[in-house]
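Question (not urgent): is this output format expected?
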Amino acid sequence: MAKSEGAAATLPPAGLAGLPPEFSRIVAVPGFGGDSGTSRQWHVLDTGDELRALGIEPVGTIIAVHGNPTWSYLWRDLLTASLREARAGAPAWRVVAVDQLEMGFSERTAQLRTLEQRIGDLGALVRSLAPEGPIVTVGHDWGGPISLGWAVENTSRLAGVVALNTAVHHPAEQQIPFLLRVAGARGVLGAVTTVSTAFLDVTLSLADPRLEPAVRDAYRAPYSTTARRRGIGQFVADIPATPAHRSTPALNRVSSGLGALGVPALLLRGPKDPVFGEQHLDDLAKRMPWADVHRFEGAGHLLAEERPYAEVILAWLADRVAPLGSPAAPVASPTPDPENSADAPPLWDKLFQRRTDDGAAVIDMTTSSEGRPLRVSWRRLAERVEQIAAGLHRIGVRPGDRVSLLVQPGPTLTAVLYACLRIGAVVVVADRGLGIRGLSRAVRGTNPRFVIGEVAGLAAARTLGWSGTRISAARLPSVTARALGVAHSLADIAEIGATRVLPTPPSPSDDAAVLFTSGSTGPAKGVVYTHAQLSALRDALAAHFDVNEDTGLVTGFAPFALLGPALGTRSATPDMDVSAPRTLTATAVANAVRESAAQIVFLSPAAVANVVATAHALGDDEHAALAGVRTFLSTGAPVGIELLRAAQRLMPNAVAHTPYGMTECLLVTDITLPGVEDAALSGQHGVCVGAPIGAGSVLISPLDRDGRATGELTTTPGVTGEIVIAAPHLKRGYHRLWFTDRAAARDAASADPVDHVGTTSRRHRTGDVGHLDAAGRLWIEGRMPHVIVTSDGPVTPVGPEQAIEGVSGVARAAVVGIGPEGLRQCVAVVETAPGAKRAGLADADLTEAIRAAAPIPLAAVLTVRALPTDVRHNSKIDRTRLSVWADGVLAGRPPSAP
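Got this back:
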C-alpha cells in the first residue's frame, strides 16, 4: 500500500518516567475511510510479547484509548499492573494502549480525523493487532466515545467496556465546559492548542496532586513542535458542541447504541473534573443502567494519574468479565430482598392508616406559636404528604430521580420525605454536621434532579453550583426566590397536588434513600437503602423496643428523627440543632417528653453528655416528665458506663440501652446498662455492645500478624478481627462506589455457622475490629485503620485506652501508633482533668502512672487540651489525626494542638 506524506511514527525516547521501553511497538495498519489505500503507522504500548515470553495465554485483549492531549503513556499503570497480576496467576489480559493517529508518537498525516474516522481507525487497528478473542475497551476523555463507538459496532467480540471521565452526549441547551469553549473559540483555537502548549499545559495542571516534573515531561514529549501538536487542535475542533456539528451524527450513533451493548460496564470518575461533570456520568449510567460505577472522591480529570484506577479495573475484570471467558450478558450487582421484608408494608403504611386520626403525629419543639410547640395531626400529615407527593409528580419528579433534602428535622422534612418515598423518588439526606465542604461533596456526588431546602441550603446550592431544580421549604419573596434560583415552593407544590392523584407506588426492591456517613473515617459515603430495607429497619426497631402507637418517641439523633410516622407513633424533636448534638439540654429533653408523653428517648452520645451536664437546671415538673420514660437509647459511638448511669438517674424508670450500629446498618446489636455492668466484671478488653438484634448476625474475620483481616469468618469466642455483619435492614450498597462495595463484601459468601438471615451475599465488612465472647456478645476494640502493627503483632486501641482512663487525672485517652509500618510503637495521648495548659509530653508522674496501668508498652505519653473528634457525632476520637500529630511532636516539631 502507498503511504501518504506526513511525519512517520517513532518510538518514545528512552527513560520516560515509569514507562518500560519493552512495551513500545510501531505497527503498520491498513487505512480506513479517507485513508483507504494507505498504510498508517501507529505507536502502541503492548504487553503481548511479555505474556508470550512468560508462556501465558491471555483470556482476551484490553484496548485502551487515550483522549486529548494525552497519549498511551496515560495507561502505563494498567500495563504494568496487568502483567504483575498475570505473573501472580490471575487471568491474564493482553493490554494494547494506542496512540491515536496525529497524537502521541503515531504518524502525523494530512487527513482530517473526525469522530467517525477515528472510530474506523481504531477498528482497523483492532482487526490488525487482535483479530480474534474477546475485547474489553477502556477509554478516557475523547477516547471514551471513540472506544465506545468501536464497542457499539463490534458487539460480537465485546466482553466489556470501561470509561473514565468522559461523555457521549451533551444537552443542546447547555454550553460545553468553559475550558473547551475558550480553547475552541474562533481566533483562539490554533493559538492555545497548536501554536503554543497552553492547552496541553492546562490539562496537565488539572492533576491533583501535581504531576512530578518527569511525568509532565513525558506527557509533553510527543508534542514538542507546532506540527506535532496539530492533532490536539483537531481534537478540540471536532468536539460536537452543536446539533449541526459534523461529528454530532456519529456521537448520536454511539450514545443511542450503548443500551444494546449487553456486556459488563464500568464507569470511573474523578469528581473534580472541570470538563466532564456529574451530569455526563448520570447520562452514561442511564444509558447503561447495569453499569458498575466508582467515584474517586477528590480526584479530577486526570484520574489515571491521581488514583489507583488500574487496581479497580483489574478487580472488576476478575469479578465481572474474566470468569466469563467470552462475551456475555451484563452482570449486575446483586440486590436481593432481605428475608421477611420484601412483602412488608411500605414505610408510609402506618401514617396512611391513621389518616382520620386528629391526634398528634409530629411535635416540633423548635417551632413555637405563642409559646407553644407546633403539633401536626396524623390527618394533616397524611394530607400534606399526599398533596406534596402528587404535586412533585405533576412537576416532573419520577421514580428513581434523586431529591436532595436540605431541611432541618421537623414536620416539613417529615412530610417531604414520605412524599418522595411514596412516588419512588430517591431521597438524599446529608446533614450540616458534614461541614460545608463535606455537604457539598455529598450533594454534588448524587447529582440530584431536585433540591428542596430552606434558605441557607438553597443559598449554598446557588453559591456552590449544585445541580437540580430548586424548591423552597417556605414561600419566599419573589426577589429572594429569583436570587436563589427557586422554581417552586412546597406550598405551590401542595396546591398543584391538591387533587392527590398519586402514581403507582414503588416496588420493595427499588432504591429509596441515600444516607451519608459521618465522614469521620474519610470522605462521607452515600449509603443506598431500598424500600424493603427501610421497612425492615422499621420492623426491627418496633419489635426490639416494643414500639406501638401509644409509645411516643423523642429523638435528638438525626437518623431516627424521621421514623415516628413509619412506626405509627407520635414523635417529638427537642429544641436543639440536630446536626450539633451538644446543643441539646436536659430541659429540652424533658419538655419534649412532657409534650409528647413519650416513653422512648433516643439520643447520640454527645447529646447525652450535655444533657447530663445541664441536669442541674431541671425543676420538679421536668424530673416528673423524665420519670415517665421507660426506654432510653444512645447510639452512634461508644457510651461510657458512668455516662449511662448518670443518664439513667435522670430517667429512673427507664431501661438504658446502647445499641451498636452504623449508617450502613443502623441497628446491629444492643445491650442494656445492666448488661454493660455485667460485662465490665468479665475482665475482657474493649466495649461490649451486646448481642445481635432480631435476625441479624455478627461474625469475625481474624487479623493476621500484619493487621489484615484475612481469616475465615468465625464465631469462635476471643478471636480478634474485623467485624462482619448481616441483617434484613443492611444497606443495598454505596452510591457509585463499586470498589468500596466490593471491599466491604469480600468473602461474604463464606460459610456462616449461625446465619439466620438467608442472604449470605449481603454481608458487610464494617471496618470495626473486635471479638465475640462466649455468650455471643460483641466487643468493639477500635477501627481497622487504627490497628497498630508492632513488631510483636497487631494492637487494637480501645482496651489499652480503657485501662489508661482508669488512672487518676485522666479524662479521656487515645492510643495511636508512630514509626514505620510493621514496626510501629504505641503512644498514649490523654486529656487530663483539670485540662492540660498546653499540648506536649506528659509530666514524669503521669507518664509513670499511665505506663504502669497500660497493658502494652508505651513509647511516650502526651497530653492535649482536647482530643480531636469527628464533626457529626462530636464523640468519635480522630486517632489518625492524633497519630500524625504525635509522630511530629516526637520528631521535634512544635507541639501545637492536634
